[in-house]
Design goal:
three-stranded antiparallel sheet; 13 strands
């Protein structure tokens, strides 16, 4: 047997490729644009190391749980750079100040999402914000292990399946490793993201140099994205718009482009293997109307004693309000049954068999969501009235 037995449930963590001493495993892209692992039978010696580090074949979980609730960074700059309440920024800043290193997801110069290290506060900036596509671990687990073996503090923040993959690769617990996962709703592919960028560049007649999902305006969370663009002759400008007008972002929010295994994710559960879990708390106003979710608010769960002790060490930099676990569980994805749309298969077949522009025209034109366009373009006081009527 080999890692091929995982099939469509593969999470794309690449740990099997990293562990293979015989270079028998490579990454290929299937017709639906998803990255898959492929085994060269001529090189494979059936050592089965790939199976031992697979987080799908070896699900990592723990029933341990400590404090949980809602929180946000008291420093407005840190909160602004985060997608929600800026918890990742607070955690990362402390690790850096303690002489450690932080690993998270960042786009490189070619807008490829890769696991990236940060050893200074300035290095952290590209790691902020949600990215919503599969992050290429790019053999960074080897680098993380080397740092840990030298006694350096490391914070690794990623999806729960990739945190599990790192732990399987390391084979032992490290006291100097802090793992943080986020409540994940699935990931899309780099190839589809690239197609969306190319589509948007044609419309803008410009080169897109950077993309920021969930761009915040005036310290408030929003449904906007931000492009950093460059015209001919080096003229730079910024383009901001609703998520509906960026095909990839629109498709992701409709849950059309997640990997097949994401819809029945083995890690979408309350039994996490990370030290701390963070995520959005979009429904906070149901429980505390004094907290404005649009100003930035996160939920957190300390899953281990190590996570609890670290969280307490940075608590002075946070606003924290405790909530029962059942409240958090009911208001975020802590269950394996994902919301797979009825037209998801039809959408993916269109991706596989048609030019990208045709798929966008059929499924992702913003005008198809005209009610949302009107809602998001309306002044905040009108949106608040609509929300109250809808309750």
């Amino acid at each position: 047997m080999s890692i091929n037995i995982v099939g469509k449930n593969c999470c794309g963590c690449r740990t099997c490729k990293t562990i293979c001493k015989f270079n028998a495993i490579s990454v290929i892209t299937d017709k639906y644009c998803f990255e898959q692992m492929s085994v060269d039978k001529n090189k494979c010696v059936e050592c089965r190391m790939c199976e031992k580090v697979c987080p799908i074949l070896n699900v990592q979980s723990s029933s341990e749980r400590h404090s949980c609730g809602a929180a946000y960074a008291l420093d407005n700059n840190i909160k602004f750079w985060g997608s929600s309440g800026g918890l990742f920024g607070v955690f990362s800043r402390q690790i850096i100040l303690d002489g450690g290193c932080v690993y998270g997801a960042a786009f490189d110069n070619n807008l490829k999402l890769k696991t990236t290290s940060a050893e200074t506060l300035n290095d952290l900036v590209p790691l902020y914000k949600s990215k919503y596509l599969l992050c290429d671990t790019d053999d960074k687990f080897i680098e993380i292990k080397l740092r840990l073996d030298k006694g350096k503090k490391v914070l690794y923040c990623s999806s729960p399946c990739q945190v599990a993959a790192l732990k399987l690769y390391l084979k032992k617990n490290y006291e100097n490793l802090l793992t943080v996962d986020f409540v994940c709703h699935g990931v899309g592919s780099q190839v589809l993201f690239d197609k969306s960028i190319e589509y948007s560049e044609k419309k803008l007649s410009a080169k897109i140099r950077n993309v920021v999902f969930r761009h915040k305006n005036k310290n408030a969370s929003s449904h906007y994205y931000l492009y950093s663009c460059e015209k001919n002759k080096g003229k730079k400008f910024y383009k901001q718009d609703l998520y509906l007008s960026f095909p990839y972002y629109n498709a992701y929010c409709k849950q059309l482009i997640c990997r097949e295994g994401c819809y029945t994710c083995k890690y979408a559960t309350g039994e996490r293997c990370s030290d701390i879990t963070i995520g959005d708390f979009h429904t906070i106003e149901k429980y505390d109307q004094s907290i404005n979710r649009f100003a930035g608010i996160s939920m957190f769960v300390c899953n281990s004693l190590k996570g609890e002790l670290f969280f307490n060490s940075v608590k002075r930099y946070l606003f924290v309000k405790s909530f029962d676990w059942e409240v958090l569980k009911a208001n975020n994805r802590f269950h394996s049954d994902g919301s797979k749309p009825q037209n998801q298969r039809e959408f993916m077949e269109s991706i596989a068999n048609n030019p990208f522009e045709i798929t966008v025209k059929k499924y992702l034109q913003p005008i198809r969501d005209w009610k949302k366009l009107i809602y998001y373009k309306s002044p905040s006081f009108l949106r608040n009235i609509v929300k109250k009527i809808g309750r």
